[in-house]
Amino acid sequence: MSLGRRELLAAGAAASVTGALPWRSARAQAANTLKIGVLNDQSGLYRDLSGPGSTACVRQAVQEFGSRGFQVEVVQADHQNKPDVGSTIARQWFDRDGVDVILDVPTSSVALAVAGIAREKNKVYLNSGAASSDLTGAQCSPNTIHWTYDTWMLARSTGGAMVRAGGDSWFFITADYAFGHALERDTANFVRQQGGRVLGQVRTPFPGTTDFSSFLVQAQASRAKVIGLANAGGDTINSIKQAAEFGLTRRGVKLAGLLVFITDVQSLGLQTAQGLVLTETFYWDLNDRTRGFTQRVQQHFAGGAKPSMVQAGCYSAALHYLKAAADLGAAAAKADGAATVARMKAMPTEDDAFGAGSIRADGRKIHPAYLFEVKAPGESRGAWDYYKLLQTVPAEEAFRPLNEGGCPLVRS
Predict the structure, then answer these.
(1) pTM
(2) Rounded to 5 degrees, what are φ and ψ at 204?
(3) What is the CB-side half-sphere exposure of residue 201 using CA atoms within 13 A?
(4) Residues of the chain with pLDDT under 50
(5) Which of 41, 183, 292, 375 could be joined to 46 by an S-S link, Cβ 3.0–4.6 Å?
(6) How far is CA 354 from the centre of its chain?
(7) Strand runs (DSSP E) across 143-290, as ranges?
(8) Which ranges of 260-336 would DSSP assign to H, the alpha helix?
(9) Residue range 42-58, pLDDT digits in tens
(10) Cα–Cα distance between 296 and 46 in angstroms, integer?
(11) Which domains are assigned to the chain?
């Protein structure tokens, strides 16, 4: 594999945000220093929902955890949504730079590659940004925890709600990589189980697609009642904007944004996004604890922005990892990633972003999911006041049943 100049620069950009010299500190770091690597999209279509905000949330977790007999160092890098770039950085971090745990990793194709490397190197991988439910299914790993959300949860909540509301015929516009395929698959299964029909689908190149007009024309021609957007970030924003320009919603077609983040709503504006039904596991204004967490971390966000559920997941995952490392001992946590993940599974989770929760044998972090509707402009009290809560899905119902995922770690 040969990497271009931009990819090599991205790999080299995995420098410590605490100011350490990466070439020297990785081999010379003290045995009681844990090193967390935040690997995500720092410059592309997932930057706003992940990117520097995820790093800020990890640093907030480190600050709140405090000093408990060991030091914590945080590094970050841009995987550019490319599996080869992400894999190169992950191997460099584990082999050369002394990273003990990788966090975030939106883009499911990159996430699945990093999960394999973490298992090979016996390190810890805590996924917040990627969605593929395969991470806790056939490709589950004793070294991986899938933290924030997944395609099965999104399909059950958003897809199920749309079918119950009368959307019984679907056409999918799907990002052509692991995430899009998994989200289409899981949603289509729920549609069919509830008596609905899938009339067709079209796969859009990823990354790099900005013009969705021809795909929307195909969806409209199918006469489906619902166009399912199995994409995310900038792709979702462009799809919704262009659908509005074509007047699809005025003609009675429903758009199902199967993965919509609050940062997407911010980009779309309430005039365009109003009425969208979506599912998230974190919302900054959900309760006193989420508001408290947001207030603490918001100093690191420009322009009054609020954290996305991916960024909040990075905070939650990092905090629980540090608690488990303290319980296990820093030296033991560094030496054995699988043992550290096992200790994390054995301990209940608790933080201001997600409240109380747990981690299953397949690596699935369990907490409630929330079905929201985007407010109309006249209903909003101000900036980032965007959601109305429609339904809370209890933690025990929000994610795929443990015995249905096909994870080899689950004993029947």
Answers:
(1) 0.89
(2) -105, 140
(3) 19
(4) 1-29
(5) 41
(6) 14
(7) 144-146, 169-175, 197-204, 226-230, 254-257, 277-280
(8) 262-268, 270-273, 288-297, 309-328, 330-335
(9) 999 899 999 999 999 99
(10) 23
(11) 5-149+289-367 (3.40.50.2300), 153-280+368-398 (3.40.50.2300)
